[in-house]
Amino acid sequence: MAAQAGKEVTYAWEGTDKKGKRIKGEMKASGEAFVNATLRRQGITVLKVKKQSGLASSGKVTEKDVTLFTRQLATMMKAGVPLLQAFDIVGKGHSNPAVSKLLGSIKSEVETGSSLSQAFRKYPLYFDALYCNLVGAGEQAGILDSLLDRLATYKEKIIAIKGKIKSALFYPISILVVAFVITAVIMIFVIPAFKELFSSFGANLPAPTVIVMAMSDFFVSYWWAIFGSIGGSLWFFLYTWKRSEKLQGTMDRIMLKLPLFGDLIRKATIARFARTLATMFAAGVPLVEALDSVAGASGNKVYFDATKKIQGEISTGTSLTVAMQNVEIFPNMVLQMVAIGEESGALDSMLSKVADFYEAEVDDAVEALSSLMEPIIMVILGTLIGGLVVAMYLPIFKMGEAVG
To answer: Is the pTM of this model over 0.70?
Structure first.
């Protein structure tokens, strides 16, 4: 995304000053001619002017960067630091140049008369609708510092729960990849050496040894096809998955039904749903409008579609509890808490309690899953690698018995 202010873009320039010293910098302008004219008026001889491709040219702005910036901005505003000065402090103190450039661009937007939420909306790659809506609600109500604090807490909790899901999935996948690589190395380089040794025995080999040697021959002959087909299939799947809503929906439904992992993903999704809705509702965002952000933040197509259905029913006068019951994907505990929240007028508080409960459930599930996966993975690796080793040593054992 290009750093923009109106129709202006950022240009990087190089030149020499009046003393002949080589200098360089950046300037926001509507065109290259404007950059040249401005630098000449400053007594700089221009050598090169290049349009910047965007903020990513200096690095990458991650979700953690945005979360840290939100927390810092909230802390400074609560301490009474003026908004523009807070942007200066955070931008100059950040180690990531892309974040500094992003904050500088937003500050420029605010200085030229835009509201903070309007400035954020010009960078949708980093600030989603939920973020901008909450900031806008804070500006209108005069409680921007409180809303930023709530927003920072929300993003910290969402990042934490995403990290737990990734760590739970990463461990078994990484072990399986390592197991495949080790197996391929044994098949391609180790077993052929045994095959040459066994060819001089002049006796029939055990069936397991023959099977493993045949598999090795296939690996040696078609390793390029095996690795190519696996790599190509993964690339094709990821490429299609990013562009096909139908495939995303199918995969999300499958993920929810997976043994061990399905329940973990469901709990994490419900936690995100409840946390997002609680944050939006507490900020005074109307329920129907808030559900737009909730759907996008759910992270699962099944819950996205269900949230859109809930939104449609609420817009026609149905209560949130009844609409959630109708989609039939929320546990009874969640429905009861929402019903109590609606009756007591403390829906945001009840939803926060639901989110806290399911976030704790995810923590416990990840710990239990990690403890369970270790012995399962050891058994799989032991069976796979151990089976190959035993199959190749069987002829040697038989030869030892014959000699004995």
So the answer is: no
